Amino acid sequence: MIKLSIITINRNNANGLKQTLASVAEQTFKDFEHIVIDGASTDDSVDVIKKFPHIAYYVSESDNGRYDAMNKGIKQAKGEYCLFLNSGDYLASQTVLEQVFLNSFNEDIIYGNILFKNLEGSIQKIAKPKDFSISFFIEDTFGHPSSFTKTELLIKLKGYRTDMSIVSDWAFFLEAIYVYGASYKYLPIFISVFITDGICSDTNNIPLIQAEREKVWKDLFPYTYKDILRIVELEIELKRVYKIPGVKFIMKYVYPLYKRLHGT
């Protein structure tokens, strides 16, 4: 079995696609296949695909949205892990995959750091936490271009939900870890550059993102989701309190002394 299946979805983004494919083609690590799922593009995307001989499989046909396209890629994947690197996004360096797979791991999900690049070219470094609780998923998630997920886990969970238009990758990680108990490992490596010009980055879509996330919480935890969200809110508030000057000192030294003195 090959180690990695890189899946790229695209629709009418020939220039971005070229950038993505080039970043994969130049990798020093070669134990991968590259799968491209094109959504019946009417620009030069297919011509771009044909110029990269490293591509193991491609198709250009209509689909039912980006998560349907990503699921098509999963069905073709033969690698132990999958990496979703969508059109326009690119790997952070020529050696990044080699850096990743020099590590020894067998966890279900391997995730690293990500770089966000806006249309003006400015880059923001986003480092992900090594350890986290469910509160992490209230406002954040792993970036799919900087995460390696076991193909068998993707198949087990039937890929990405196609009834969502924006948050299905977030929903997948939440379900995988907190419903199915998937294992995970953090690598302190910047994996990829994510271009922030898509549907997820459009501030006009914030209400839709919130509505979709609420539906996912209800679907995954129908009887306890309100309690979970309340506990998470309290955890977030506690973290804010701990940032107030002097609070950590009081909780570490003064409060334990108070409890001993009063026998509580």
Class of secondary structure makeup = alpha/beta
Helix content: 25-40%
What's the number of helices? Answer: 10
CATH architecture of the largest domain: Alpha-Beta Complex
Uncertain segments are none
* CATH class wording of the largest domain: Alpha Beta
What is the averaged pLDDT score? Answer: 88
CATH topology of the largest domain: Spore Coat Polysaccharide Biosynthesis Protein SpsA, Chain A
Task: Please write the string of helix (H) and strand (E) elements.
Answer: EHEHEHEEHEEHEHHEHHH
> Which sheet architecture does the biggest sheet show?
9 strands, mixed
Tally of distinct domains: 2
The end-to-end span amounts to 59 Å
Instruction: Tell me the radius of gyration.
Output: 21 Å
The outline comes out as globular
- How many individual β-strands? 9
Going by CATH, what is the homologous superfamily of the largest domain?
Spore Coat Polysaccharide Biosynthesis Protein SpsA, Chain A
β-strand amount: 15-25%
Task: Give the tags.
21% strand; 10 helices; 2 domains; 9-stranded mixed β-sheet; Spore Coat Polysaccharide Biosynthesis Protein SpsA, Chain A; 264 residues; alpha/beta
Polypeptide structure, described:
- The protein is of the alpha/beta class and 264 residues long.
- It folds into two domains: 4-208, Spore Coat Polysaccharide Biosynthesis Protein SpsA, Chain A (Alpha-Beta Complex), CATH 3.90.550.10; 223-264, no CATH class.
- The chain is built from ten helices and nine strands.
- It has helices spanning 14-25, 45-50, 66-76, 96-101, 136-139, 151-156, 168-178, 206-220, 225-242, 247-261, and strands spanning 4-10, 32-38, 55-60, 81-84, 90-91, 109-117, 123-126, 147-150, 184-195.
- Strands 1, 2, 3, 4, 5, 6, 7, 8 and 9 form a nine-stranded mixed sheet that branches.
- Helix 2 (45-50) links the parallel strand 2 and strand 3 (55-60).
- It is globular, with a radius of gyration of 21 Å.
- The termini are far apart.
